[in-house]
Each structure stands twice: as C-alpha cells, then as structure tokens.
C-alpha cells in the first residue's frame, strides 16, 4: 500500500506543468449570522449608543420585516432612539459620540435626514396577522398607540378616542397573557380614564402601583379617578402618596394642592353630616 500512495503522488506531480504549484482550494464561505447573533450584536450597539449602526444591522438582516423579534427591536429603536422622525413612518438615526446627548442632538439637528422607512403600525399589524399568538407584538402596538397619543405626532386620521380604544384593546390582550408591567397598566388606566371610564381605570392604576409602589403618576391619576367617583378618603390617600413620591417640584406642588383640597372637601362633608344628624334629633 505505501507503494501505491507514492505512485499516485508522483502521477499527480507529473500532471502539473513545470514549476506549477498545486491549485489552492477556495476558502469556505463564512456562515451567515443567526437571528440570535444579530439581536445580540444589535443590543450591544444600542447599549453603546450606536443607534444608526444597530438599525443598519437589523434592517440588513430582515429588510422585509418578517421576523417578529427583529421587528420588535427595530420598533424599540425607532420609537425611543431616533434622531428625527416623519410621523413615525420614517426615521433618522445617529451613532452618538462620547459626551454627546441624544436629546441635545435632536434639538440641534431639527432638519436631520429621515432615510429609513419603517411604518410602525403597518409592520406590527402585519406581523400580528401572521403571528397572532406572539403577544409581544400586541404590547408593542399598544405602546405605539400610547406614544402616538402623547406626542401627537402621527396617526392624524385617528381621533384621540380611537387611539384610547386601541390602547385598551391591545393592552388588555397583553395583560391577559401575562406580559404587563407597571407602565402598561398605567397606560391602560390612562386610556380608560380618558374615555371617562373612571371605575374601570381604578384596577389598572392599582395594579401599576402594586408593581411599582413609588410610581407617583399612577398615585396622582388614581386620586383623580377616586375624586370623580366620590371616594374622597381614598383619593386623599393617593394624592398624599403622589406628593410624597414626585421629584418634580411642579408635579409635587400639584399633588399637594389636590390633597389640600380633598382635605377641605372631606372636612366640609363631615361637618355637613354632623349638622344633618343634629337636625334629625
């Protein structure tokens, strides 16, 4: 057998032209990155505030927005870390340098380019139709409607009442499948309250407070709902909590003012009750 190997080796070299070296095999192609790897890289880029680089990575991997996990990260990036937006249907991003602040850049570059189309509502609704049981998509769409109502920067064809109803719909679905947190319950309470569904807003605000007891806005809004519902002692309790937890001086002052007014109303109601009881005697 060694003789056979030696013969084959000589035959191979004999077939080569004089001075010619054996041809090198082509290098194997690099394996395409997996979705998990792309998401991990994009997360690292976002943590480093390299927002445009993160967007290019995600969009290059899934340009037609067919992958829910990638689209969810793009939605987070688009809604929270854009430099400029065109009605939340197109976005401009920037890689933030050390010592730079994104909010300051937004103020300075008010006419920055918007080169990346991404119609948030359309993308998320299409994916929900394809993946109806992916309730993270429902949560993202609910957050989109909440942010739209807050900034008044998109969905001009929808009235505020329509936006509140959409928030209720998608946050309710989200919560039914265990994906709520304090902010989603607060937003649901806000939507209910804005629709004048004050009794329905109470459980949502209460749940938000249970998940984050020091969240002052939930205490304040719950105090308002209790006031409308004429549950003044409960309203006073929540107003005092809001005043205790607010850091912003103006918000703290508003909560304190509400608490003082509730104290007066409760005192007046007690006085009126005593007078009524005295008259009956």
From TrEMBL:
Gene3D superfamilies for the chain: Tetratricopeptide repeat domain
SUPFAM superfamilies assigned to the protein according to its UniProt record, in alphabetical order: TPR-like
Keywords of the record: Signal, TPR repeat
TPR repeat feature ranges: 182-215
Keyword Transmembrane: no
Coiled coil start-end: none
Signal peptide segment: 1-23
Key word Signal present: yes
TM helices/strands, residue ranges: none
Annotated protein name in UniProt: Tetratricopeptide repeat protein
UniProt source species: Hymenobacter yonginensis
């Amino acid at each position: 057998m060694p003789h056979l190997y030696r013969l084959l080796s000589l035959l191979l070299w004999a077939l080569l032209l004089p001075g010619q070296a054996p041809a090198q095999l082509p290098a194997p192609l690099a394996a395409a990155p997996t979705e998990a790897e792309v998401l991990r890289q994009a997360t690292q880029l976002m943590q480093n505030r390299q927002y445009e680089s993160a967007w290019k990575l995600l969009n290059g991997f899934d340009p037609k927005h067919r992958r829910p996990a990638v689209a969810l990260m793009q939605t987070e990036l688009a809604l929270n870390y854009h430099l400029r937006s065109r009605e939340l249907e197109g976005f401009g991003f920037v890689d933030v340098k050390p010592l730079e602040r994104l909010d300051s850049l937004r103020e300075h570059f008010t006419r920055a380019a918007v080169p990346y189309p991404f119609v948030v509502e359309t993308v998320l609704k299409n994916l929900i139709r394809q993946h109806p049981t992916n309730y993270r998509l429902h949560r993202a769409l609910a957050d989109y409607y909440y942010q739209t109502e807050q900034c008044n920067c998109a969905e001009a064809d929808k009235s505020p009442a329509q936006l509140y109803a959409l928030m209720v719909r998608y946050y309710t679905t989200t919560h039914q499948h265990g994906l709520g947190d304090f902010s989603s319950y607060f937003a649901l309470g806000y939507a209910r309250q804005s629709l004048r569904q004050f009794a329905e807003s109470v459980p949502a605000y209460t749940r938000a407070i249970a998940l984050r007891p020091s969240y002052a806005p939930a205490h304040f809004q719950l105090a308002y709902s209790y006031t409308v519902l004429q549950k003044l002692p409960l309203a006073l309790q929540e107003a005092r909590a809001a005043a205790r937890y607010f850091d912003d001086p103006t918000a703290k002052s508003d909560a304190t003012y509400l608490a003082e007014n509730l104290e007066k109303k409760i005192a007046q109601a007690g006085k009126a009750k005593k007078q009524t009881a005295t008259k009956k005697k």
